[in-house]
User: Fold these one by one.
Assistant:
Number 1:
Amino acid sequence: MNSEVAVTPNERVLMVDNLGIEYRIGTEWKKAVRDVSFSIGRGESLGLVGESGCGKTTVAMAIMHYLPRNGRVSDGSIRLGGREVEELSPSELRQVRINQVSMVYQDPAKSLNPSIRVGRQVEDVFELMKVPKDEWDDRVIDILERVQIADPGRVVRRYPHQLSGGMLQRVVIAMAIASEPELLVLDEPTTGLDATVEAEVLDLISNLRAEMGTSLLFISHNLAVIRKMCDKVGVLYAGRLFAEGSAESIFTDPRHPYTVGLLRSLPTDDVSRDEAKLDTIPGTLPPLGAEIVGCVYADRCPIVQDICRKEEPELNPLEGNRTSRCHFPERAPDLPRTVAEDPPQRQISDSTLLKITDTSKTFEQEGRPVFALSDVDLSIKVGETVALVGESGSGKSTLAKVILGIHVPDEGGVIELGGDVLEDSVQSRSGDSIRSVQMVFQNPDSALNRRHSVRRIVGRAVQRLRGLGRKRAHEHTRDLLTEVRMGHQHLSAKPSHLSGGLKQRVAIARAFAGSPALVVLDEPTSALDVSVQAAIINLLSDLQAEENVAYLFISHDLNVVRYLADRVAVMYLGRLMEVGTAERIFGGPHHPYTEALLSAAPDRDEGTRIRLEGEIPSASDPPPGCPFQTRCHRKIGEICETVEPPLAEVESGYSIRCHIPIEELARLQQTTPEKS
Amino acid sequence: MTRFVLRRIGLALITLFLLSILVFIGTQLLPGDVGRRVLGPFATQEAVDALNERLGTDRALIVQYGDWVGSAVQGDLGDSISFSRPVTELLGRALRNSAKLAVVSFIIVVPLGVLGGIIAALKRGKLTDRLITVGGLSATVIPEFVSGIVLIIVFAVWLDWFPGTATAPPDSGFITQLHHLILPAIPLVLVLFGYIARITRAGMIEALESDYVRTATLKGLPRTTIIRREVLRNALLPTIAVVASQIGYLIGGLVVVEVLFNYQGIGRLLFDAAQKADFPLLAGGVLVVGAAFQVSMLLADIAYSLLNPRIRVGGKA
């Protein structure tokens, strides 16, 4: 190959030129990625951001030469270390994968073979690198230590299902870096992990990169993660690169209306729902392979002009070594707000709606008790939003299910709704109390019956919860759809034909069918793209003001919690650790656990990170004393290990479960927290 | 794991107990007067009474049931009326014969079915895949008496390659016996091939498209290693369970084939017992076949859990 000798600057680890990728849908080839070009230099890290369906993963898979069976590279070139990927022979490709490029992706639990021991799977890498067999064991232990696995000798003998998600992702990263590849492709490597684990995995990747000088291609929908991890950022939309530049410039001074829109959709920590609505990006991504004249973003762009609909803009270079595919990049920063109206006015009444007293839930697993909830006391006022936060395994969802009557709590606790005691199980609850407490799940795909139309899904809920006849129910269904800002044209659609955001609106409409007093929202936006998330949060906020409904909002996204919640309850190992107004919880002084959670957010500075040691203990074997003592960075001594602190109301409307006096916590947290 | 096996055995015993009640009701209770049914409408009442007394069918039902189950547990299923021999002896011989036929069928169909499934999965969407899946499915729906008769006509009558009966002459050697058993095994192979191939294919495709196969490929493992080590290990798990669960069918469900090929297996024996109103033999036979099904299901479950580390090694560390 001539081109191989020609211009191959060795410093370029990856060069993607005018890449086009197609998928075969039925008999037609549809363009999923067009004309994408970027390159990554040695030691550099490039982030690709964009909403789902924009082609991020497709690009990554093409680089790995692992497109699905119905996908193909149709145009352009991908060069790894100067060699054209599409022209590699199978054995050359294997060598490239062994030595040059590795990949880590989402969902580590699925990335490892369930029936092969972890150690054997890591060994493969050394076997493929032709390391002598007698060195394998040591090398495996070394590499696992390098990704900070505490007891590698034990971990190698485990099967994947015996390890936690964070641990598995470390193993996958260990395999990926074992050959010290030139390029590491990371596709949503921390999506689905707890914020505390995410923070650790990201730190780990940063450190390894600093040590080995590996280049990164980092794909994520999470803008804060990309900003933290990458030098350069490319913004993808509908398979096209919309903007590229330094992370700093893209995030602080964006020059494309789409980038501006994405950033504005994110809740920030200085604005709450009562101050301003979130900006959204109206409309949806064009369908795969749609042939569009002009700019593909024109239909959703607030500053669209005539020329945008006629001529597709080039990826224009701008000052500051960056590009933007827009005719009017200079106008992007002053993009008009898409959601201009004022936030809805609302009033939280003083009367208590839900009152949970002394409620516990113990499951039995293999003959041993699992203490999922311990003595929870919590109340929610009429029209109020209370957020539940905590790592997975902290009991958030169990509490939600106990309130809904899906799980029957242990004897002794009382749950009251509007002054009346709620029956334990949903089967024995009256129609009225079922109607009053409804739920919206994280994943509308599994919550909505895919065979039924929207009309039937919502209509049935209306009939059952309101006891209306068919005709009146139908009218009410149409009203509900209007209420969740959906057009009536969607009435006969099935969920599979709706976008994620629309599906979640249907789920919300169904929950509101009976005019509930309390809606439990279990991570309602975490499966959605940021612009859609913003629209759903606005909707929830509007509905709350209109219907005077209370929310129990479960989320791991602290920025969303801060924006939406009036009060926050922090859970750990089935207990409430801290309860107070959102302002108080986020403002501090914090419970040490909350302090750690807050410091784990990717937009926090790494210097102030509090590392949580180990994992959340098993609820079947909770530690003695304070449940958090095994991981607490502020542990004061024996009392923490022997006596469980009570949840004490130390200020009006603020309770904390900690042995350290609140004044002392305030003093400690003013100085830079020590790292452990 | 031990707990799981013990619980599974317990469940099998409960099922057998329920089956014994059903069998008892079916063979002792529903026929009404057993002596009359055996001797026919023209026998004298004295003869009927005498037979009932000899068979014990004149006693209270609960006593009869307790007696029957009690001896059955000790390995005594009573005497056959028509053969005047202990039921266990008759069943033992028939069971041995059935097992021979089952083993021959198994040895042919399992490798073929698994291989077919693997090939179909690797060539999925191609012509080979469609031939195997559609062909296998079509073969599954051919009733054994149709395929059996066709086979006899073609291979035994026209071509005379195989004997038309499955029963080898007494004291014949292994090869002769095998020669007799191949033709009767084929209808069973036809029934099971599509089933096994389909399960294997589905397991293969699921594994081939899994994230862990992607991980293995991107690590740089060669394709053959990936298929052998990463794919087959997980893909064959459901197949093994399905195959093991078919042992029961192969032992107890072969009435048609055994009658057609005149083979003294357990299916044939039950058929005869039903025709001759030989209630003790029928009851014992059904119970044994039920036990065979239970054992095969049990084997299937144990095999599955032995091979699946998620069950074998248990939960989180």
Note: Residues 298 and 306 of chain A are 9 Å apart (CA to CA).
Number 2:
Amino acid sequence: MSRTLYDLIGLAAGVAFILALKGLSHPKTARRGNLIGAFGATLATLVVFFYTNPGSSLPLNNIGWILGAMLIGLAVGVPAARKVEMTQMPQLVALFNGVGGGAAALVAIVEYLHLGNDATTAEVIFTVFTVIVGCVSFSGSVITFMKLQELMTTRPVIFPAGRFIIAATLASVIGVGGWVVAALGTTPLLILAGLSLLFGVLFVLPVGGADVPIVISLLNAFTGLTVAASGYVLDSVLLIIAGTLVGASGTILTRLMAEAMGRSLFGTLFGAFTAKPQDASGAAEERPVRSGSPDDVAILLNYARRVVIVPGFGLAVAQAQHTVRELADLMISKGIDVAYGIHPVAGRMPGHMNVLLAEANVPYDQLEEMDEINPTFSQTDVAIVIGANDVVNPAAENTPGCPIYGMPILKVSNAANVIFLKRSMRPGFAGIENELLYDPKTMLLFGDAKASLTKVVSALKAL
Amino acid sequence: MEPIAVISIFVLAVFVGFEVVSKVSSTLHTPLMSGANAIHGVILVGAIIVADHSSTNLELGLAVAAIILATINMVGGFVVTDRMLEMFKGNKK
């Protein structure tokens, strides 16, 4: 295959990626967009097997190794993607992003070993960039994965003099990077990789649980840029286009997410470095709360005219999406006006709750976004908060200095009655006490969300 | 490749990347992130190229690891994005 044809097919794949991102921006075209992207990636991969590099011949050298490695990748990736629970989606995206960053770093290292002293200065600079950012993306993603999977604490991890350790690590990463460019050599490059991995860990540790999705998105953009840099070293137009697209769109997406959460990007990434460790316990544990029975809840609902359901991650963990839809249908049949109030970051990731409710076939027109639903709470008789906490916590509005201060919230406190379905008094993902739980108009129904909802449904049917 | 060609491609791709996602609703943030994630799995192409010209066992070993990781990223990414979007589609009516 001629170089021109090879590059043209690469360009076609690049266009497919643009169409994919464009399609993914609208609900109607999203699925088709993703399939176009998959087609482009398949095309790009196939064509490599038919292009002869200068000084090489077909079939590719080491073709057995190449195909074997691809089969292993398929055998790991496809079942993981098929079987993952929708609740665990953010972890999986983080992990897939991390392995992509790792792959880019490895490709850069191999190419560096291969070129040896023949590498131009520009190539070495791009290699150093790819190794640093790819390694940061890899180890950072692993830490976000562990936080989301709750293999480690979801609170910001802040250690004494953390800021200085992070700054010193970053300085040595840059220093060693300069050393590689100036002196060349395998050992400095491997030291660079090790330091970059360490920096990735230190960079993500102080980020609080609620901000983790923003970090995943940012690391996603980083990985895109490493792919673009690899494209320069490997002389591939396609990698430059694809990597830059992901880098740019990922940056915008990160900003959009940060806005939806009412966070400044800078504050998310660097806020924790300056924050004092949170006082985890608080003095509130002993205060009385009003707890009710499923019958109390059913009676309250039966006489309501408008009910707003606010679903949170706890709903999905309890697999109660179908039961909540049953409750909603029952209320609608009784002539009650029902809507779902969806916070942009309900769940563990922006848009996550929409995915989870879509899985339970909740009709689209009942889902209302935060800006639509907030003005209606004052005409709402009952707001049912199921397994959500941080997204309705008034502390975000009235407690400067708390980790979620400034995040827009669903103003359920404006409703006449608030019902919380909770497993326990444990605070939410961000680890902050919620004053609303102690409000006199709040009623708490303790227990597993699915079991509680089932009891409420049968109590409501009996009325 | 000419540096000026590389810079041109880079700058234009940055603008295209900004433009295509600038008005996406928060409903689609998760699938969009996942889809963009799958796209950078195309580093698989780079991994195959370096595996082809690996001349030592070390190079080949690292290249094989890169192919495995990149394949997981690319294939897993597209499959999981499709699974999410499939559910959205069932809801449109």
Note: Residues 25-89 of chain B form one domain.
